[in-house]
Write a sequence for this structure.
């Protein structure tokens, strides 16, 4: 028929109306289709649920994200009475009634007791789909760490759709880390393509990454099946992949070496702390204190006691335990010096025996007071967890803090010895007791304080140790031999020697462990030290000159 | 005449030694009598429990003797001597395990139970020959002696002395303990060896065998004493005492100090090893905890309590302290460690010469340690010589 | 070793060339060069810290020099030998501080110093021969300690300990005797006796004596070497050295 003016006007009016009204119409329609889809979720099979989720995602409805995340977190429920679908705010079992949120408008809708609600269930496949879908949403989030997590999630199950999403994102992504991640993902996807140039380009990009998934994906291309056929037929691509794998492996080795070193440093730090206390009593005073390990144990138990007294404030308890442990162990040391050791100066072998007796008594006392079982000590939250540096290097925080702690204690000790009056007195008495006495230094007091200082540091070592391992009466015994070896290795009387010696012993032990196991590593270190001492009896930093000569 | 001195006149001067030997002879007669001839109902009967205990004491006496030889006379404080004791014990244990044969739980004629349990198919090479006593016996001396030789060769040649040496002997025994605890070493892991059946065909559970072992131990202790006495009374013994007191001065007299220390160390380790070898069949078990540093240090306290540098004191101290241990761990177990600790402290502070120091006339024999307090440079005691190494 | 050490055939008894010993930067010996003729009695004097004891330490193998050579006789390089080996070639030393073995008797101290096979196994099995016993008694008479034969060396007076040290040195029958401050703490009579003893040893043995007591030095020495700051300052007979302006400067100068 021929369109007359009237028809055209009506048609235009209709179109205009549709255009103007369609959002609301669309919205209203959207809301309706949204709720319909939601209700369908109630009785749908898992396969159907997947389809529904897909539709919900494509709907572009503003509440989609909330609904989908509720679903994946098992927070989407149906009220049995009226078959209405609701989002539940929190599924805490302790609550008698759960608060409900309308899934379409996201407004509160009161609450309902648990037994009136039925969960809308999910299975693994559905959850994966939900996660990917949600990730797509998160790719647009303003927070870069959210975007990063989203990209990683998406990379786990790449498909054409997600590749497209990533591709559109990569150009506009401002954050470099997220961008790298997207490029990795796109590179991995491109590997499956057919365009050689694109694949080579992808390999070039991937070669710069360090992640294990990337490496394995490239290495898989080099695999041969049983009859000698390569997974990847193109030799040029294979060569590029092989080179990329090598380069990734190199970088990974470096990172894992760094991790081993870090770990070793943390183990060594404890050795340094224990050894430093011993270096002072042994190296400076010539006293062999076999109870040194038990003084460390006292420090560790101080932390345990502090935590028992302040159960709610773990972080505070550790902070308070540090000076407390120093005082407890230091005081014990002073008492030990005044009551036993001062009568045995000049007789190191007998000091050894007497202090061994003290160590037995201390161990048994702790056993009687605290029971013979090991006790666990909690690590404060700010000290737990890991710091991730780059793709392959992760640093556990508690170990990091222990290294820091050790360095701080060492620095403070150096300041005390070099800059304070006490330190001067200590050094004077160590070098020439008679002369020091003649100059008016009260050597007896200095002796007691020196011993107390060394013992206090042992207490601090116990604090550090408590963050690693369980606290028990035998704690000292496992460390006493190590600490002597550290002092002897580093050179008696040298604090720097103890630092270097302890740290290197820790690192060497860590390097050996993966190859020969913990016990053999320990044995090898001991044997190596025994051999080392034969060759360099005075340690790494020996004291030279007349002061060190025997008769 | 070996060792340069006729025996009996020397004995006349050595009253303590005479007492010890007489005592051992008496025990060798009385113990079989009281155990085998006297019926179990009688109050004079010596129970198997006491028989084993006395045998243990004698073995510890031998260990103490070995330690006194090097500590009291040569000034070498070994904090790892229980390692040599245990090595000898393990050698005996290996022989005894091979003797079990098919009577073990798994009934394997060759492999001991623990190896079957670990799914091993053949004996490790170092077990060969241990089914023969004539091989096992020298090994009981060679295993500890060999280790002592290697260790001493390196340690003494590098002139490591004093406290340093003591610490590395402790580290050595600790390392051995860790090693023997491992299940894959082939020494029974943390369970060690046990469930022995017989020795040289004699049933280990029979009183007759136990009595025989006891007498052998008494004889071994007596012989060890005589050997140690001979060494100590010879010129070598005087050189050793000189080394103990002023080591570098002895070098300047032309003596190879390292060589003296090495041989006496090896000899001492052999005595300790044989003591351990006699210990194991009497107590019926050997496990890696025997290597624990505390055992070595306990041996040191036996010698210190008795009075080092007297030989007799060492044996007496071993018996005394172990008797106290038996008593305390039976009656008041928690108190034992306190008592032991107090013993360490008390003896070093108040009885530096041990109980023998209380016996008049023996003071001269017991080495006094350095002067108390100031005066003597402490570092000279730390025992690391500043002298250059000769090529 | 079997038999006494070989006689020195011509040449010098001791040749030290350019010895340098440094402790942590402090030069105890700084290019020390010295020779001693066989059968000579040389006295070494010098202020404290001049290097006298360090020089003896180098000769006896106690300290290794950083550079320089030390030769005994025509051919024996002392720097390659250990302390006992140096004793074996015939060098004996009496230390500055008497280091006798306090827990052994005077007799036992001397017995230990006897020249002869000193291996462990020998010492274990050997007995004192009557000729050796007589020799010990002879030395006891010379050093005047015959009545203290069975006393513990630790209970001797200081001067007696010095004598015991000298006795131990004599027992070794060395070719070269290094005597470090023999008369410190002795009475005038003892000092005279020591001077006699040392002079009597001269022709058949070579002696190097370190002393501070100038009268004593004058009474025994023909040739004197003055050490200062680790090197030889002056050498000559007593009057030459005493009148040497450099020596006067060092001993008396500001």
């Amino acid at each position: 028929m021929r369109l007359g003016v009237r028809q055209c006007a009506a048609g235009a009016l209709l179109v205009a109306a549709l255009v103007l009204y369609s959002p609301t119409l669309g919205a209203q329609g959207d809301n309706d289709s949204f709720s319909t889809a939601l209700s369908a979720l109630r009785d749908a099979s898992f396969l159907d649920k997947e389809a529904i989720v897909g539709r919900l995602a494509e709907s572009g409805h503003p509440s989609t994200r909330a609904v989908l995340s509720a679903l994946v977190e098992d927070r989407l429920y149906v009220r049995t009475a009226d078959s209405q679908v609701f989002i539940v705010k929190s599924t805490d079992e302790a609550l008698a009634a759960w608060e409900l949120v309308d899934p379409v408008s996201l407004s509160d809708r009161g609450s309902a007791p648990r037994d009136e609600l039925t969960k809308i269930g999910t299975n693994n496949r559905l959850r994966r789909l939900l996660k990917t879908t949600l990730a797509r949403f998160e790719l647009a989030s303003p927070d870069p760490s959210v975007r990063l997590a989203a990209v990683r999630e998406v990379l786990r199950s790449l498909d054409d759709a997600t590749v497209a999403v990533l591709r559109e994102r990569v150009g506009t992504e401002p954050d470099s880390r997220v961008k790298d991640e997207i490029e990795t993902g796109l590179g991995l996807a491109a590997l499956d393509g057919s365009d050689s140039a694109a694949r080579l380009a992808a390999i070039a990009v991937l070669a710069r990454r360090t992640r294990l998934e990337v490496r394995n994906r490239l290495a898989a291309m080099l695999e041969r099946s049983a009859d000698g056929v390569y997974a990847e037929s193109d030799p040029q691509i294979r060569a590029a992949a092989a080179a990329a794998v090598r380069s990734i492996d190199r970088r990974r080795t470096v990172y894992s070496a760094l991790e081993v070193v870090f770990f070793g440093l943390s183990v060594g730090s404890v050795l340094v702390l224990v050894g430093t206390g011993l270096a002072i009593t042994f190296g400076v005073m010539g006293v062999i204190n076999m109870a040194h390990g038990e003084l460390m144990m006292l420090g560790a138990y101080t932390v345990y006691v502090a935590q028992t007294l302040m159960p709610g404030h773990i972080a505070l308890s550790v902070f308070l335990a540090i000076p407390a442990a120093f005082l407890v162990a230091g005081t014990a040391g002073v008492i030990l010096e005044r009551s036993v050791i001062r009568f045995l100066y000049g007789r190191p072998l007998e000091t050894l025996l007497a202090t061994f007796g003290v160590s037995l008594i201390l161990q048994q006392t702790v056993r009687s007071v605290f029971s013979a079982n090991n006790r666990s000590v909690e690590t404060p939250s700010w000290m737990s967890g890991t710091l991730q540096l780059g793709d392959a290097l992760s640093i556990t925080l508690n170990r990091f803090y222990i290294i820091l702690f050790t360095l701080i204690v060492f620095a403070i000790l150096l300041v005390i010895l070099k800059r304070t009056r006490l330190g001067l007195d200590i050094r004077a008495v160590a070098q020439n007791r008679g002369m020091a006495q003649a100059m008016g230094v009260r050597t007896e007091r200095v002796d007691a304080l020196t011993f107390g200082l060394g013992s206090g540091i042992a207490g601090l070592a116990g604090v550090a140790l408590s963050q690693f391992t369980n606290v028990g009466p035998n704690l000292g015994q496992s460390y006493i031999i190590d600490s002597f070896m550290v002092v002897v290795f580093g050179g008696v009387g040298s604090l720097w020697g103890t630092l270097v010696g302890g740290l290197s012993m820790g690192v060497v032990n860590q390097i050996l462990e993966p190859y020969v196991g913990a016990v053999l590593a320990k044995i090898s270190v001991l044997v190596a030290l025994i051999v080392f001492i034969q060759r360099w009896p005075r340690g790494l930093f020996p004291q030279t000159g007349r002061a060190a000569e025997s008769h | 005449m070996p060792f340069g001195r006729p025996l009996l006149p020397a004995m006349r001067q050595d009253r303590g030694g005479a007492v010890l030997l007489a005592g051992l002879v008496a025990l060798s007669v009385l113990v079989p009598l009281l155990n085998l001839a006297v019926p179990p109902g009688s109050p004079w009967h010596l129970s198997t429990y006491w028989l084993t205990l006395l045998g243990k004491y004698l073995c510890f006496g031998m260990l103490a003797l070995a330690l006194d030889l090097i500590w009291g006379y040569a000034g070498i404080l070994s904090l790892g001597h229980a390692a040599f004791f245990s090595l000898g014990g393990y050698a005996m244990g290996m022989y005894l395990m091979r003797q079990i044969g098919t009577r073990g739980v798994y009934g394997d004629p060759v492999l001991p139970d623990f190896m079957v349990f670990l799914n091993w198919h053949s004996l490790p090479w170092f077990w060969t020959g241990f089914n023969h006593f004539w091989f096992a016996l020298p090994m009981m001396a060679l295993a500890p002696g060999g280790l002592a030789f290697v260790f001493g060769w390196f340690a003494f040649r590098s002139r490591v002395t004093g406290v340093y040496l003591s610490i590395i002997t402790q580290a050595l025994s600790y390392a051995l303990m860790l090693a023997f605890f491992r299940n894959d070493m082939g020494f029974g892991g943390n369970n060690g060896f046990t469930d022995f059946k017989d020795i040289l065909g004699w049933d280990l559970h029979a009183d007759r065998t136990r009595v025989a072992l006891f007498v052998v131990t008494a004889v071994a202790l007596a012989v060890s004493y005589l050997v140690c006495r001979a060494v100590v009374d010879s010129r070598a013994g005087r050189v050793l005492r000189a080394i103990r007191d002023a080591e570098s001065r002895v070098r300047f007299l032309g003596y190879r100090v390292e060589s003296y220390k090495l041989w006496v160390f090896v000899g001492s380790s052999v005595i300790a090893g044989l003591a351990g070898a006699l210990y194991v069949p009497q107590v019926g078990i050997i496990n890696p905890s025997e290597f624990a540093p505390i055992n070595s240090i306990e041996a040191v306290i036996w010698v210190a309590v008795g009075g080092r540098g007297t030989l007799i004191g060492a044996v007496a101290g071993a018996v005394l302290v172990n008797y106290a241990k038996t008593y305390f761990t039976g009656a008041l177990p928690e108190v034992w460690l306190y008592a032991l600790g107090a013993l360490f402290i008390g003896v070093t502070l108040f009885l530096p010469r041990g109980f023998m120091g209380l016996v008049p006339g023996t003071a001269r024999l017991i080495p006094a340690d350095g002067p108390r307090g100031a005066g003597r440079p402490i570092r000279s005691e730390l025992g690391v010589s500043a002298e250059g190494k000769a090529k | 070793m079997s038999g006494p050490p070989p006689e020195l055939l011509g040449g010098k008894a001791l040749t030290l060339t350019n010895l340098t010993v440094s402790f942590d930067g402090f030069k105890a010996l700084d290019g020390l060069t010295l020779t001693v003729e066989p059968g000579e009695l040389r006295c070494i004097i010098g202020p404290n810290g001049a290097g006298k004891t360090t020089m003896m330490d180098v000769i006896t193998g106690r300290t290794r020099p950083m550079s320089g050579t030390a030769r005994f006789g025509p051919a024996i390089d002392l720097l390659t030998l250990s302390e006992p080996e140096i004793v074996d070639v015939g060098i004996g030393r009496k230390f500055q501080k008497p280091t006798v073995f306090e827990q052994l008797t005077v007799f036992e101290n001397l017995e230990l110093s006897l020249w002869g096979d000193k291996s462990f196994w020998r010492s274990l099995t050997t007995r004192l021969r009557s000729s050796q016993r007589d020799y010990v008694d002879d030395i006891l008479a010379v050093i005047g300690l015959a009545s203290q034969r069975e006393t513990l060396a630790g209970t001797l007076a200081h001067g007696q300990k010095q004598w015991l040290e000298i006795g131990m040195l004599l027992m070794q029958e060395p070719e070269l005797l290094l005597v470090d401050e023999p008369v410190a703490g002795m009475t005038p009579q003892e000092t005279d006796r020591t001077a006699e003893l040392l002079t009597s040893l001269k022709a058949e043995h070579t002696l190097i004596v370190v002393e501070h007591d100038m009268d004593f030095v004058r009474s025994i020495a023909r040739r004197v070497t003055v050490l200062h700051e680790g090197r030889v300052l002056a050498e000559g007979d007593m009057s030459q050295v005493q009148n040497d302006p450099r020596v006067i400067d060092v001993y008396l100068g500001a």
Notes: The two ends of chain A are 129 Å apart (CA to CA). Residues 22-26, 545-551 of chain A have pLDDT under 50 and may be disordered. Chain A is about 70% helix and 5% strand. Residues 139-233 of chain A form one domain.
